[in-house]
Specification:
The protein is of the alpha+beta class and 161 residues long. It contains five helices and four strands.
């Protein structure tokens, strides 16, 4: 099995580095051209299923890539909700929170066993198959993060507690 991940084409906000989640912005002309180009690369893939975020930018990219007739809208593919940071650039956010990092700040995920196992192994750079080695009990707590003295090193700080 192969999973193809296609990011939506360029928007005015992505071009400007603005965090975009629930705001439904359109593709730029360049974004539309790029979506057509990625479609050319996907023509021979022969997908059995195609899913798209409900956001206009992703649906339009799918359409221009030629996959709309078979694409199913999947709400779980929508971008993270940035809350108060919606539309802001990272530099502007750091003016109020100098140590802010989208990928480091605390996030709670309530999900499922196999998803959690795959997330953990990919977090630390292992192949997906290694998820079979990580048991995850019901109502358990696990924490993935970074080594405090070496933030570039991903770690599993707590597992299946």
């Amino acid at each position: 099995m192969r999973l193809y991940l296609i990011r939506h084409g360029e928007t005015e906000w992505s071009l400007a580095g603005r965090h975009t989640s629930r705001t439904d912005v359109s593709l730029t002309e360049q974004g539309e051209q790029d979506a057509r180009k990625v479609g050319e690369r996907l023509r021979a893939a022969g997908f059995t299923r195609v899913f798209t975020s409900p956001r206009q930018r992703a649906r339009r990219t799918s359409a221009l890539a030629g996959l709309t007739p078979v694409a199913e809208i999947e709400p779980d593919l929508a971008e993270w909700d940035y809350g108060d940071y919606e539309g802001q650039q990272s530099g502007d956010i750091r003016k109020g929170r100098p140590d802010w990092n989208l990928f480091r700040d605390n996030v709670a995920l309530f999900s499922h066993g196999h998803f959690g196992r795959v997330l953990a192994v990919r977090w630390i750079g292992l192949p997906v198959i290694k998820g079979q080695n990580f048991l995850l009990g019901t109502a358990s707590l696990s924490i993935v993060g970074c080594e405090p003295n070496h933030p570039e090193v991903p770690v599993i700080a707590l597992w299946n507690s």
